[in-house]
From TrEMBL:
Family annotation (Pfam families): CbiC
Coiled-coil boundaries: none
Any one GO molecular function term: precorrin-8X methylmutase activity
This protein's name: Cobalt-precorrin-8 methylmutase
GO BP field: cobalamin biosynthetic process
Top EC group: isomerase
Database matches in InterPro entries: Cbl_synth_CobH/CbiC (IPR003722), CobH/CbiC_sf (IPR036588)
Recorded family membership: Belongs to the CobH/CbiC family.
Signal sequence, start to end: none
Native organism: Mucispirillum schaedleri ASF457
Length: 208
C-alpha cells in the first residue's frame, strides 16, 4: 500500500519535484519561489516562460506586506485563496469589492463593468495597495487608465487574468508601466494564480 503523506509533507515533496523538473531560470531566489508556488498551484510548467517579473516586484511586495497594506482582488475566489493567518501577521488585509452594492450601482450608472468600478473604489483607499487580478482584463484596463491620469499608484500589480477577450492586450498595458508587476503574459492565468503569487510573497515575508 502506498504511503499516505501528511499535507505539509505532500507540499514539500511537490516542491522537490518542481525543483528537479524546472531546470534553469533567469530569476532571483525570491522570484523563483513565486514561480514555484504558481507551478505548484497549476501543475503547469508553461509559467516558467510566461510569468514576467518587472521592476523588482517580489522584493517590493514583501516589503509592503511587512509594513502593512491592502490587497485588492477582482474575485472572491482569489480572496478566498489568500492564506489568512499569514495575511494577518503583518497587519495586512485583503478585500474584493466586486459584490458591493455601491460598486454595482456605479457600474450600472457609468455603463462599465463591476471590475472597473471596483478598481475606482480601490483607488480611493489611503493605504498602500497591491492589486491581485486573476479574472477581469477590464480591471487592468481601468488600473492603466487611472495610473495614466495620476489617480493611482499601486505598490504592485499582479496581472494574471485568464481568457480570450482583451486578456493579452490588458496585460501589455500593465507591462508598459514602471510600477512593479508580475504578469502571466498570454491567455493563461486565473484567480488561483493571483492568490498563489500573493501567498508566495506572504510565506517569504512571514515564514510558516
Amino acid at each position: 500500500m502506498q504511503e499516505i503523506l501528511k499535507p505539509m509533507d505532500i507540499e514539500k515533496r511537490s516542491f522537490e519535484i518542481i525543483s528537479q523538473e524546472i531546470g534553469s531560470v533567469d530569476l532571483n531566489e525570491k522570484e523563483l519561489l513565486v514561480l514555484k508556488r504558481v507551478i505548484h498551484t497549476t501543475a503547469d510548467f508553461d509559467y516558467k516562460e510566461n510569468l514576467v517579473f518587472r521592476n523588482n516586484p517580489v522584493e517590493k511586495g514583501i516589503e509592503a506586506l511587512k509594513k502593512g497594506c491592502v490587497i485588492v482582488t477582482d474575485t472572491n475566489m482569489a480572496l478566498a485563496g489568500i492564506n489568512k493567518p499569514s495575511l494577518k501577521k503583518g497587519g495586512n488585509s485583503a478585500v474584493c469589492y466586486i459584490g458591493d452594492e455601491d460598486v454595482a450601482y456605479a457600474a450600472s450608472e457609468k455603463g462599465v463593468t463591476r471590475a472597473q468600478a471596483a478598481v475606482e473604489k480601490a483607488a480611493k483607499l489611503n493605504e498602500p495597495v497591491i492589486f491581485a487580478i486573476g479574472n477581469a482584463p477590464t480591471a487592468l484596463i481601468k488600473i492603466d487608465e487611472l495610473i495614466n491620469n495620476g489617480k493611482l499608484n499601486p505598490v504592485l500589480i499582479i496581472a494574471c487574468p485568464v481568457g480570450f477577450v482583451n486578456v493579452v492586450e490588458s496585460k501589455e498595458l500593465i507591462l508598459k508601466h514602471n510600477i512593479p508587476s508580475i504578469t502571466s503574459v498570454g491567455r493563461k492565468g486565473g484567480s488561483n494564480v493571483a492568490a498563489a503569487v500573493i501567498n508566495a510573497m506572504l510565506y517569504q515575508a512571514f515564514p510558516r
